[in-house]
Each structure stands twice: as structure tokens, then as C-alpha cells.
Predict the structure.
Amino acid sequence: MRRFATIKDIAKALGISVATVSRALRDAYDVSPQTRKLVLEKAEEMHYKPNFNATGLVKSSTHKIGVIIPAITNYYFSTVITGIQEVAQSKGYNIILYITNDSPELEKKIVYDLSLSSLDGLLACVSSPSDACKHFQELIDDGLPVVFFDRVPEEINISKVMQDDYNGAYQAVKHLIEKGYEKIAHITGPKGVFLTENRLRGYQDALQDHNLALDNKWVVYSGFSQKDGESDVAQLFTENLKTPDAIFAVNDRKAIGAMVALKRKNIRIGAEVGVIGFTNDPICEIISPTLSTVAEPAYEIGRKSCELLLTHIKKSTFIGEEVVLSGELIVRESTSRV
């Protein structure tokens, strides 16, 4: 339950449109001073604090951007943050990080608590399933500019910046097939996450297009961590009479977990079981054997998402864009059968 009034409540109380209230709170050029004064007075009367504190309401801008991410202790998200930070600072904005630890419950709490924060906009990489992002929709309805990146909610119509998950997955599995692997498993993320489903579709279509059977027992859903990769492989090699000869992992962390688990079983990576990931974390070139992967344009995703958010902040009528950036297949030792 939200603790403060929404712009819908203010609009109803004043008998004006939600859009007018939103523009008035932003001090948009097309709202009269009289209307803005009425809106600000009513907002204060109704204890409305979704995006700005009292100072923010007066000044119209706090020059602060919130960034919600699942984690910060891995290469991908730290690189995304670098891209965001460079654009934000060049335009005079500071960023405030919120870490969900891949917890939908913590994500919801953070979003609802943003009503106490002073933000001009929000960048978000979601941890919740795509059909359970009502908390973000409420922020958008309250007038806060939001741009999603990487893991995005499918059903919310707002700007999104993503890597090409489907084609990246397709190319990864196609590479495995071209290397002679035929029994290919997929260790993926949680069900319902848009990224998970797109990479799963790429995996499935690559198998189908190359006349290879899809065994549903070889698709394992779990989290995104290395430990999840280890447990997924343990499951694949203990619960199935027929074991795979290759593994496509939803990200490099899970791929590395898979390699750790395979080594424990004295299974030769590449020669007996090929492994390919998705991200191109620097550790891919350090581990042995080196890990084949699909490189994600993390830095570009960060820059583009921040650029879009700043456009939304400056222009409330800006129509949302969906930007999809291509990845690159990088072949290393983990998919060599020699």
C-alpha cells in the first residue's frame, strides 16, 4: 500500500488531468503559473512525495538519477554503471545506486521507498518477473521518468535498452552445433524474466533449425550466480539417464559455475562437454580452459539508457524508444573438441 497520495489523487481533487498535474510538478513550459501554484499547494496538502522532496518541488530538478540494479560485484553491471555515470556527470547529474541482490521483494521495497527520495528519473534493471512489475508502473503513473535496461518488463510501455538476447543465444547454440555438439543443455535464469525467455527462445529455435531434438529435462531454471551454475550442472548429470555434450549458460557466471562442476566430475571441458556463456566477463580469458561467450555491449547499454532518461526528464512528451544492441560471438577453448 502506497503511503502518499498519487498524482491521480491530486488531479481528481483539482478536477484536472493527470498529465497536467505531472507537467505542473515539473514546471513544464505549457502549464500556467496559476495552475502550477494550485497543484503544488494541493500536493503539499495531500502529503504527495513520490519523486521529490519539498526543495525538489520548488526547484523542479534535483539533478539526481536513481539506478536500480541486481548486483554491483560483477563485470557486466559495473561496466553498465560506468556508461551511465559518464553521461550523467557530463550533464551535471549525480547517480544514486540501489541494489536488489536479485530479490523481487527487496526491489519492490526499494521502489516504494523511492517516494521519500529526491530523484529526477530512474534507470532500472528488474529482478521481478516481467508480469509482476506493477510497482514500476505506479512510479511511471506518478510522473517519474523511468528507463529500463538489460532485464526489462515486457508489458510496460516505456523506453528500454537491451542487448539482442534472442540472436545472441541463437548464435551461441549455432556455434556449438557447428562444432559437432548435438546434445545441448541450457542452464538459464528465473522463469518469467524477459531476458531469460528471449535467450531460451534463441536456444530452442537454433536446435529446431538444425534438426536437433529439444529435451525439456535439459533446460534448467534457477538464479544467475556461479553457485546456481554449479547446482544446475549437478542436476543435469544426476537426474538424467542421458547426459548433454554441451551447455549454453544464460551468463558467464553460470557458465563458470558449470565448468567448476564439470571439473569436479573429471569431465574434460570442450573435448567431452562444450560450454559457452553470455557477457564476456574478463575472467573468461583467465580461467582454464578459456570460456567461449557472447559479448554484451554493457558500456553502450549504460550510456544509451542514461541518454534516453535525460531526454525523458527534459521533455515530458518524449515517446519511449526500444533500443536493441547487438552482441558478438567470441570463440575460445571451452568449445573446442580437440
Remarks:
- The two ends are 59 Å apart (CA to CA).
